């Protein structure tokens, strides 16, 4: 798994090379919906936050099998499943085909590849990884697609982000060690403010899956309207901790707000800060993702957990078919 983190910059670069002819011409869609679950959905969340001020049309992420009613003939559906065998994603892709919606699939193989045959454009990413370790491929193939569709220029940012991540990686391992030391024995909640809510979600998922640790994520400012209240009364349950993901690019207003929320939560729980590094927005998001990935692996080691295996997830998926 550590190799996968080290390989993220290369995945990002390689993914950019994997293009397909979109099933619609430039400017012909008025919305885009990405359907995917877990490790196959998080890249789309990151894409939306990274490009929030540049995307020409609304882009939604669906974690589930039922396409919303607003999906119309000018909506492009993008089905992302790394294994190609995730039920929810397959069902949503099948209903896109049935409904005559333009569809693109991103997968390494499986039933999703079969479903596409020659009729549906398919971006095939290299296989053999746990889906959550293929984030680089899934993010950059989606970014390339968005560029092909004329919705936003992305390639230069991806290459720059990959370069910044490559440069930051050696220092991140030490930061992850320090954070793991501080967090051992606690149940963490990870907070991020846009564009870091997707990153906070990724941190929590990696702590769940790699370190087999209950961890939650919260988004700010939304969480300051509900979740923060919970900190005042829930500490009997165990030693909780909060991690605030900070963006050196955040505005002074956001910085003040994050400081205030940290001060409030620190009355109840140990608060930690993880600050992203990098020049560009995407670069900072990626370095922060890598730090969370490394933290989850460090905690997995300390807890004697096998990060590669996810038997509970597999058992539920197998039972559902
Ligand atoms: C496993 C993982 C899971 C999967 C999810 C969907 O590494 O992270 O969250 O991503 O079960 O499976 P795929 O991605 O194959 O569609």
Brief sketch in words of this structure:
This protein is of the alpha/beta class and 321 residues long.
Question: How would you characterize the overall build of this protein?
Answer:
- The protein has 321 residues and is α/β, with parallel strands linked by helices.
- The chain contains 12 helices and 9 strands.
- It has a 5-stranded parallel β-sheet with strand order 2-1-3-4-5, sandwiched between helices.
- Helix 2 packs parallel to helix 6 and helix 3 (42-50) runs antiparallel to helix 8 (197-211).
- The longest helix is centred in the middle third of the chain and has 29 residues, at 155-183.
- The chain is globular, with a radius of gyration of 19 Å.
- The model has no long low-confidence stretch (mean pLDDT 94).
- The site of fructose -6-phosphate (F6R) has 15 residues, from loops.
């Amino acid at each position: 798994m550590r190799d996968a983190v080290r390989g993220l910059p290369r995945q990002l670069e390689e993914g950019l090379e994997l293009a397909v002819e979109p099933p619609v011409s430039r400017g012909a869609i008025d919305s885009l919906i990405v359907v995917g679950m877990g490790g196959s959905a998080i890249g789309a969340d990151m894409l939306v936050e990274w490009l929030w001020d540049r995307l020409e049309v609304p882009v939604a992420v669906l974690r589930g099998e039922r396409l919303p009613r607003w999906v119309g003939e000018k909506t492009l559906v993008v089905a992302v499943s790394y294994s190609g065998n995730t039920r929810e994603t397959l069902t949503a892709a099948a209903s896109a085909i049935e409904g005559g919606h333009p569809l693109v699939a991103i997968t390494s193989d499986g039933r999703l590849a079969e479903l596409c045959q020659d009729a549906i454009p398919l971006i095939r990413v290299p296989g053999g990884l746990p889906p959550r370790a293929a984030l680089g491929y899934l993010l950059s193939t989606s970014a390339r697609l968005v560029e092909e569709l004329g919705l936003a220029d992305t390639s230069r940012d991806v290459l720059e982000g990959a370069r910044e991540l490559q440069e930051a990686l050696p220092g991140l391992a030490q930061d992850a060690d320090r954070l793991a030391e501080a967090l051992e024995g606690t149940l963490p909640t990870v907070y991020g403010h846009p564009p870091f809510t997707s990153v906070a979600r990724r941190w929590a998922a990696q702590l769940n899956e790699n370190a087999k640790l209950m961890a939650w994520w919260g988004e700010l400012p939304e969480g300051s309207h509900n979740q923060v209240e919970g900190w005042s009364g829930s500490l009997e349950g165990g030693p909780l901790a909060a991690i605030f993901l900070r963006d050196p690019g955040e505005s002074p207003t956001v910085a003040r707000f994050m400081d205030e929320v940290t001060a409030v939560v620190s009355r109840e729980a140990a608060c930690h800060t993880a600050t992203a590094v990098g020049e560009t927005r995407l670069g900072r998001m990626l370095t922060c993702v890598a730090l969370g990935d490394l933290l989850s692996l460090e905690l997995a080691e300390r807890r004697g957990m096998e990060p590669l295996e996810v038997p509970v997830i597999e058992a539920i998926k197998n039972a559902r078919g």
